[in-house]
Amino acid sequence: MLLAFDTSSAAVTVALADPVTGATVASSSTVDALRHGELLAPAIEQALAAAGATPRDLTKIAVGVGPGPFTGLRVGLVTARTMGEVLGVEVVGVCSLDVLARQSSLQLPVAVATDARRKEIYWALYDGPAADGSRRRLEGPAVDKPADVAHVLAGLPVIGRGAVLYGEALGLETSDVIEYPSAEVLALGVATGTLPIVAPDPLYLRRPDVTMSGGPKSVLPK
Hints:
Layout: E1 2-6, E2 11-17, E3 24-31, H1 36-51, E4 60-64, H2 70-87, E5 90-94, H3 96-103, E6 110-117, E7 120-126, E8 137-144, H4 146-153, E9 158-159, H5 161-170, E10 175-176, H6 183-192
Parallel strand pairs: 1-4, 4-5, 6-9, 9-10
Antiparallel strand pairs: 1-2, 2-3, 6-7, 7-8
Organism: Kribbella koreensis
Protein name: tRNA (Adenosine(37)-N6)-threonylcarbamoyltransferase complex dimerization subunit type 1 TsaB
Pfam families: TsaD
């Protein structure tokens, strides 16, 4: 069984799928930006129970690597890597923006824009879909103020929560109202090889808010 989940956004989304076809066996999605740590493990347990499976039936784990806020993103990645280590199964990552682009049924190029907080968006541009449904990423991922990239996204349908929050600032003419990544699509893309695989490491696009210590400082007056 293939277990897939993504916690890079306000949604906690989980799917259990056939590892060859990607057909969904069980899935769930809950939007709650403050409870990733509380929701993910029960959602995985419920998916396994619905399929009549146990963790030992898992053959691969796929996890969305972001970009996304640190707190929610690390919940998914730590869970995936810990389960992979304990169960001895492969863990693979997928850019969460790629998952969103794969969710669109539009037969033309699209942009993805998700909520990066701080009044910014994570964004990327994608080509039209190939025959197998895959999309080639043309630019990004990057993080910017919506107004600073409005000219880049101009004329494209935009997928993701960022389009909902900042449609006016982006000057959107069209949008594809899909707000959050789907674990079902993540599982399908990994099983069928139609989503690019990356290491299960967090994709952070901002510099850390903290820096390494420069060593002890003198408390004596100068």
